[in-house]
Each structure stands twice: as C-alpha cells, then as structure tokens.
Amino acid sequence: MPVSVEPTSVDPSQNGSAPANAGAGASADVTEAEALRPHAEDAFAGELAALAAQDERPRPARWKLSPWAVAMYLLGGTLPDGTVITPKYVGPRRIVEVAVTTLATDRALLLLGVPGTAKTWVSEHLAAAVSGDSTLLVQGTAGTPEEAIRYGWNYAQLLAHGPSRDALVPSPVMRAMADGMTARVEELTRIPADVQDTLITILSEKTLPIPELGQEVQAVRGFNLIATANDRDRGVNDLSSALRRRFNTVVLPLPETPEAEVDIVSRRVDQIGRSLDLPAAPDGLDEIRRVVTVFRELRDGVTTDGRTKLKSPSGTLSTAEAISVVTNGLALAAHFGDGVLRPGDVAAGILGAVVRDPAADRVIWQEYLETVVRERDGWKDFYRACREVSV
Amino acid sequence: MTGVEEAVGRAAGAGPLLLGVRHHGPGSARAVRAALEEARPRVVLIEGPPEADALIPLAADEDMRPPVALLAHAVDEPGRSAFWPLAEFSPEWVAIRWALEHDVPARFIDLPATHTLAWGTQEDEAGVEGESPLDAETADSEGDSAPGPGPAGLRIDPLGVLAETAGYDDPERWWEDVVEHRGVGKGDALAPFTVLEEAMGALRETYGSGGHARDLVREAYMRLQVRAAQREFEDGVAVVCGAWHVPALRRKTTVAADKALLKGLPKVKTDMTWVPWTHRRLSRISGYGAGIDSPGWYGHLFSAPDRPVERWMTKVAGLLRGEDRLVSSAHVIEAVRLAETLAAMRGRPLPGLSETTDAVRAVMCEGSDVPLALVQDRLIVGDVLGEVPASAPAVPLQRDLARLQRRLRLKPEALERELELDLRKDTDAARSRLLHRLRLLGVAWGEPAASRGSTGTFRETWRLRWEPELSVRVAEAGVWGTTVLSAATAKAEADAVAAQGLADVTALAERCLLAELPDALPTVMRILADRAALDSDVGQLAQALPALVRSLRYGDVRGTDTGALGEVAAGLAERVFVGLPPACAALDADGAEEMRRHVDAVHGAVGLLGDAPAAGQGHLRARWQSVLRVLCGRDTVPGVIRGRAVRLLLDDGELAQDEAARLIGLVLSPGTPPADAAAWIEGFVGGGFGGGMLLVHDERLLGLVDAWLTGVPAEAFTDVLPLLRRTFSAYEPGVRRTLGELVRRGPGAGSGAAGTGSGIPGFAAELDTVRADAVLPVVRLLLGLDEEEEHIGNDLVGVTG
C-alpha cells in the first residue's frame, strides 16, 4: 500500500538538459529554496546522512549506503542512535528488498504497475539512496529520440571544430555510466521500440560505443538503471524479449487493504478539491468508501466478504481512477447538486470507468449490479442511481 | 569395527542415542542418516504406533513409494482413524529404511494407537470434530512445529519460542537456517542433535509439558520401551523422536512412576495398514495439517546431492519452459545470483524458499504471480503420489463396505442382476445411496438402468454386477477416507475442484444429492457459484440451469436441505438473464437454432424455479419475461429466437393476442426478407410445442401466415421452402390435415367466431354449458376427485408397490 500520492508527472526542469550536479554551486541552493518540490536527496538529506554515518555494512562500489541501509531508508525504522527514518514506501517489505538487491547485482530494475502505485516515487528514492542523486532521468514519451538515451551533438561546436568529445552532449544515461551512478528511465514502455532497444547494448555490454569518434564509454562499477513502466495502459510499446531479459521485474501492487485505499483516495481528493476550489463535502467518506469498494471488488474479481466471485472488466480500475471518479462526483455535487456527495453523483463516473469495452464490460457491470449491489444493505440508493445511468 | 565401538562407546556415557528431529524435515532426515551411519546402533526405536511394527518390513518392498502414511483405525468404527504420514524426506522414514538396509530391528515406541484412538473418543465429547480423520493424535505427531487443532491456545510452540529467542519472526525460517540448510555434516554427525537437545531441555524446564498434557503419558510409555530395548541390546539403542520429547526421554524416572501414569488408559480395538499419501496432503493448505508448507521444496532439498539452489532454479526453468514461457539459461543464472544476494542481505546462510521464490518472480516471471502460482502448485507443493504394495493389509474402507453390504443385504455377486428400489422404504433408500456413493468413488458395482413399468421419481432400477477388479478400486478409493460416506464426500469435493466445465459441476451437484452427501454439497455449491460467475458463455450457463433446477426439485423429494442450491440456481438464472440478449446478436443459423433450444430450456427451468417456495425467487419470472420482451423487440436477434420469445410470452398469457398479431404482421410485412420471416415462423409455431394447434385455433394468425406465404415472390419461395417444410412437417398428421382444410376453405370463412372480437379466436363468446357438462364425468375420473374412484386408485398403487 503505497502512501505516495505524488503525481506521476515530473517537473520538466529535472529533465536531462541541465547539468545535474545538484550537489554543487549556488544554483542548487536557489533550486532548493524555491523549488515547488525538492529532490528526494535534498528533502531527506538529514536521514541519508544519519544512515550513512551509522552504516557499517559493506557497500557495493560507489554506493552511498549499504543495501541494507537503502532498504531501511525506504521502509523506515529507527537507527541505534534514535534517529527516526520515515517510511517512504508503505508496502510489502519483500518488494523493496528485491528491488535493492537487484540494483546490487548489477541487473537493471524494472518497476511495473498501474498508474498511482508510486513507481516514480520508489525509483526516485532508490536512486537518491544508492547514488545520492536522483536527477539522472530520461522521461519516456512517444517522441523520445535516441539522443536522449545515448548522446547528442552540440552542432555549433561540431561545425566549428569537427567531431570531438567537446562537441558531444552526453545523455543522463551516459553520464551515469561514466560516473558509476544510477540512471532512471521513466515510462519505458512509452518510448518507441527502436529507441528502447538502444538500452540493450548498454545493459548487456555495459558500454556505449561512439562510432563517430571511434571511442566508447564504458560503464564504471556502480552504474545501474531503474526503469518504470505502466503495464496496463493503452498504446504502450511492449518491451522486446531481449530487453526484458535484462531487467529484473518488480510489480508494485495496488493498496492491500480497503482502509489504506480509502485513505489514499480521500486524501488525494481533498488536495485536488482544494486546488479546484470545490466546497468540502461533509458526508463524502461513505461515498468514497463505496467507490473504493466497487473498484476493489471488480478489480479483484471477488466480493469483499470473499463469498462471491465476479468477472473483472477490461479497465484498470486503479486508485488513480477512483480518485478521479470521486473528484468528478464532488464537482457535480458542488455545481449542480446540493453540495453533498450522493450516489447519483458518482454512478455515472463509475459506469464510465468500468465499461471500457461496450459489449463485454456492460454485461459484467450489469451482472455485478444484479447479483451483488442489489442485495447489499444500505446500497439501495446506489443501485437505483446505477440502474438509471446504465439503462 | 573399532570405529563402531568407539562411537557406541561415546554414546554409552549418555545412555541411548537420542536423535531429536522435526517431523518432515529434510535436514533432520539427513542428519539422522549420518548419525546412524556413524553410531551403527543394534536397534532403532522410532516415535510411532507400536501396532505397526509388523508392517515395517513392507517399507522395503519394491512397490512401496513414499509419501505413504500409517493408518490406524478402530475396527468397529472405521471412521475413527489417525494417520502418520511419512515422506521420503521424513527422518522416521530414513530411520526405517536404514534399519531395513542394515538388518537392524526397527520398532515403534509411541503410545499404542489402541489408546490414542480411544482418547479420540473422549475428545469428541470435548467438542473436537469427530469425523475428522486427524484427531489430536495425528496433529501432535507433527505437532512440534504446528499446534494441532482443538485446544491450541494452551499449547506452546517450542520452535516459535526458540526462533523468537534467536530474533526470528518466522519459526519456519529459523528452523530452515539453523537445521535444514546445514550442509551434509562436516565433522561430528551427532553435534546438531546435542545442540538441539540442550535448547529443548531449556525450553522444557521453563514450560514443562507446554500444554501437551498427553505428552507426559506418551513419554512415559516411550521411556519404558527404551528401557526394555536397553535391557535387550544394552547400549546399541538409537531413538528417533520429535526433538520436543528428547529431554523427557533423557530424564531419569522410576519404572513404577511411569507405569502409574499409564494405568487405566482407555482402549479400543484397532487395526493398522499402509495407505498411499500425496505431497498435496502433506502440505498445510490441504487441511490435513501435516504441518509443512512446501513438501516439494523439502523433497528437493533432501534429494539434491549438492547445489540445491542451482538445481531448484533449473527445475523451475524446466517447468516454465514446458508451459511455453521464454526462460533461458541466462535467466537461471540471474535468478540464482539474485537469490543469493537476497539471502546475504537478509542475513541468511543460504537462500531459502522465500528468497528463491522472490528471485523466480523477479527474473523468470516478469514480476507476475500467475506463472508463480504454477511453480507453487507443481514444484513447491508437488504432485507426488505414493504407492503401497498390494500385500498391505486391507484398508478400512473395505471393511466399511463389507459391513454396509451385510446390513443392507446386498451381496456382491459376479452374476449380473437387476435391482428394483423403492426409495420410500428405508432399506431401499440406503441401498440407493450406497450405490450412488460407490459410483462417485469409481466403484461401478451398480449401473442405473431405465425403470420398467413405473416412472415415479421414488423408483430406481439398478443393474448390479461385482467384477473382481472392483476390489482393487475399493482399495484405491481408500485414499479418500475410511468410510464409504467420508470417502465419497472427499472425492466429490476433489472432483468439484478439478472439474473443467460448468456442466460437470452441475452434474456433480446432482450426484451429490442422489448419494446424499450433505457435507460435500457446500463445496460443490461454492465452486458452482464461482464457475457460473466466471463463465461468460451464456450457452453453458443456460445448459447448467435446467440440471440444477432438476436437482433442486429432486432434493425436495428426498427431503434434503436445498436452500443453498436454490440460491445458486437463482444467481445462475440472473446471470443468464443479463447475458442472454447480447449473446443472441449476430448468430448464424446453427447458432440461432442452438440458442433457441437454450431459451426453451431456461424458460422451463425458470418456470420450475419460480414455483419454488424459497423467498427472493418470485421475481425471477417477471425478470425472465422482461428479457423475452427485449429479445422479441430487437432486430439484431435472429428470427427464430424472436419468434420463440413471442410464442413463450403468448403462452404465458403475458402478451395479448392482438399484440402478438401485430408482431406477426410486422415480421411478415413485405419489408422483411422472406428467409428471416420463415425463420421467425419456425420459432413461433415450430417444434413439438403445439404450434400447429395454435394455428388451427387462431384463424387470424393462420390468415396472416397464409397471406404472407402467398405474397412471397417466386424467386424467394425456393429459399423459404425448406424452412417452412421443416416447421410444418413436425406437426401431427391430424393437425396438418386440419390446417390444410382451413386454408382451402379460405380466410374468414370459418366458424365466424373471429368476428366476435372480444372472445378468444376460434371459440364462442359464451360457454356452452350443456356440452361442457358432458365432459365432467371423464375429468373427474382422470383427476380422482370422486371418492369411490379414489379408493380404487390407492389400491392400485398398493398392489404395484
């Protein structure tokens, strides 16, 4: 159950082009003071320093902390001297352990999950704890070019002095290789397949050839790569099996308990609602719980009491979608209703989230309505509201 | 020989060689073998029921393959039984095999099953479920790691305490690290036992019997046995028992005190045999509570000569490749590396099951749990099935069957004969149940045959024939339970879990009712509900429904509680209602014809289900009718189904005649392609549903059909003809002739009734009472309303019954 409710989008200023030696220079101080959202290594500098000071276990080459301490940084705990490490990721311990161990074995790490499962959050903190720098980042989009992963050219230099290392603009991945740091690739599956495959040489040979100069950059010990990908989105470029084989995959799960999910949804809805200047809804929690219950039941294919199996629709029904359904409902209630979140306000949103494939999903939804919702105590209003929008 | 004497000499100072083990621990098993090799005792004593001593030589039989279990059962009551499962990696099994290989006597020294089974009786009174094949006895024989059912709250878990002391949160993991993952002993083979004994000794000092009150009695008995063996073999005695018991066996007590503890124990006559066992039942999830999560993994640890993790990963890769997943040698290498690094990070000496599983998930399964479930099922638990030689004594199931055969006076005869059963009689009902249960168990002694003469539901005909190989079947079925009832119940549950299609489960539910297995029914029902929920083929759902409804009604006849069944049937019907309209779109002719049959079947089933008195089912009919309405109004639905839907509504009186006529007119209007219209007509009046009579009596409908038919253009007529022929040729000759006459007479020239408007077409507006009265005596006779007639009817029934 990830506690992170950070948006998955990333501040563009983090993206590759600027020099990323965040530790040095006056410019870093300015960013820290004015940044809307400081980097993990800055925000938690105190904890990292305390961990490093007391960490006596062996560290892999160029790691700032031992694997054990990295796991502790993510999962939280108390150091012998009483320093409290806040948990960055609340979820199965196993996942963090496998992720950290993977980085220590020099295999690349692939974090998979539906939107809103804190993939980016985990990858940022891992990089911060392992290399002390989470800014060596490539943001994957459908238009990410090969240069973003390998290197580009400073064309003024190139024309003036011919090809040389000075005219070369290294990518974050190339810099990470040269310095033995952790590079990050966000949304790997959005990157076109041919650009993705650039990573194969980097990950298997650990070198990046520069044929124009007859040179190559060899990865220094300590280099590794964390990629995040969304496994249930449309329009993704599936990884080739050659590339996939070079990653250890960790799937970040959806929240484990309904309570945790209700908590995440209501907190996030509250934040969004405030930024949209929606009036606070007094009785919203019941309705949020209902939305979360519906989403969880359909997603898991079984009712919360574990007694009835259900078919799962084709949509992802992630926590992020539950958040948007509730926010939408709040907006409806605020602008067209009496300000109280009612079943009718969320029914249409739920229908839209569940029924993605008009033929199959509609049957699944109606079965759910007729066999589960109708019988449930206190859900009469909701059933009626859903019948109204479904027909 | 000097080496042997040395070893024995060393053990001599400490009395008998006590090897404390964990049941089903591969590390323990390996250590036991090493210790026995080194000490070379002259007799091996093993914790287990002494009645089984005579069965020990069978363990050396070629046909004996673990996992097997020692089964003790009360002679008079085969349902009261206990199992002592032994896998290849059980230390006890290793000790037995070692003794047999070295011609050393092996003996069981635990309290005799005579007493422990009798204890079971008393526990029944204390509220422990009596039918369970695992009473406290068996649970305890594995109980060193897993507290048994029942008064578990009082018991302490010795491993848990030790693990907690060592700073582990999981006792299993602690044990794995400390004992199971030790390599084959470098140095002193006895050292692990000494260390463990000290630890257990400290625990026993603190906790005493730890809530296992009966252990004191068992240990007293074991001490007496050890003493007897010592008198006979002096110091060449080795004892293999649960580590928990070691300090107690070491303790010096007087013979008199031990004997006093054993006084006045209850007794019951018991019998023992070997039965085949499975890995699945060794695992905890099976509910048999043998107490280990991962028999397959343990078996692997025990049998792998070296490099267990590498070998395990190769096995996993092999399995995944067999399932068409892309797993290369590079994957195996990476998985091993990840597992080892994980173990190092978690501070464990060797990768355990959790590390290897995490590594397999991250490297070979791409983070997904789906292929991992396969690994869990096939490898970690495993599919190993034990075998027992044919010379093993008879299983209790055979005795139970023999007892039932005597009581019900059903002799097994090789000659085929027919048996008529009247289920209203108790003996006959019991016979029927027995035969049905045996059929479930795969013992095809009786085959149901069609009844001659009477067709009542209280009558069954069986063809009986006992083939010699059926005895083998009975022995095989012994794996399921000790009585016919419990075995059939267990088998039915297992069948339900393994069943492929929905229809299989429904059929099974029907058989469970026939065989009266109320305990199996909840499982079958749950699986039926699950399958129905996940099945997206409306056809299958529609096929399952009638069988289910039939079972429901049949269950009523037998007085079984069918509440759950009714609920499932209603749920199934709901799913059919939701799924039917979309499923009827875009069908070809064959598909449409099949779907029409489904619609008919569901209609009949809903009719029966709607009659059921259970609450919440009354609305089913109304819902079904609304589904039919949707069907008949939707253009994408094939004509034959639309026609049938209209017809079914008409028959139910839900659709007015006028409305039906309008729909027919609509369909038969010139805008509809003739082939569609013909299909519609087939749906509407086709089949053996008295469609012809409808046309005979409703001249307006006939007129519409006639008008349409004469209007079909010549070129389309040849296309329509086969369909129409199929529709009308199914009618009775009389109906066909009448129809022909009516058509020849021409429309509107009939009896004139059609003109009266409000009346039903074909009938007069008013009743003709004189003609109606004439029929009454015959109706009375048929219905048995007349008192005099009723007597005669009853007498007749009495005679035939």
Please tell me about this protein's structure:
Chain A: GO terms for molecular function: ATP binding; ATP hydrolysis activity. Chain A: It comes from Streptomyces coeruleorubidus. Chain A: Pfam families: AAA_5. The complex is a heterodimer of chains A (391) and B (801). Chain A has two domains: 12-251, 3-Layer(aba) Sandwich (Rossmann fold), CATH 3.40.50; 258-390. Helix content of chain A is 45%, strand content 11%. Chain A has 17 helices and eleven strands. In chain A, the strands form four sheets. A five-stranded parallel beta sheet of chain A has the order 4-7-10-3-11. A two-stranded antiparallel sheet of chain A has the order 1-2. In chain A, 46% of the residues are buried. With 801 residues, chain B is α/β, with parallel strands linked by helices. Among the domains of chain B are: 2-64 and 83-270, no CATH class; 304-382; 396-484, no CATH class; 769-800, no CATH class. Chain B is built from 36 helices and ten strands. In chain B, strand 3 (68-74) and strand 4 form a beta hairpin.
Strand and helix layout:
The complex is a heterodimer of chains A (391) and B (801).
Chain A: H1 26-34, H2 40-43, H3 45-54, H4 67-75, E1 77-78, E2 84-85, H5 93-104, E3 108-113, H6 119-131, E4 137-139, E5 151-153, H7 155-161, E6 168-170, H8 172-179, E7 182-186, H9 193-196, H10 198-204, E8 207-210, E9 215-218, E10 224-230, H11 241-244, E11 247-251, H12 258-275, H13 284-300, H14 319-336, H15 343-354, H16 360-373, H17 380-390
Chain B: H1 2-12, E1 17-21, H2 26-39, E2 43-46, E3 68-74, E4 77-86, H3 91-101, E5 106-108, H4 113-125, H5 136-141, H6 158-165, H7 171-180, H8 191-207, H9 213-233, E6 237-242, H10 246-250, H11 255-261, E7 270-276, H12 279-282, H13 295-303, H14 308-322, H15 329-345, H16 353-364, H17 369-382, H18 396-407, E8 417-422, H19 426-440, E9 446-449, E10 459-464, H20 469-477, H21 484-498, H22 502-514, H23 521-534, H24 538-558, H25 563-583, H26 589-611, H27 619-633, H28 639-651, H29 657-667, H30 674-685, H31 691-697, H32 699-711, H33 714-729, H34 733-745, H35 769-783, H36 787-800
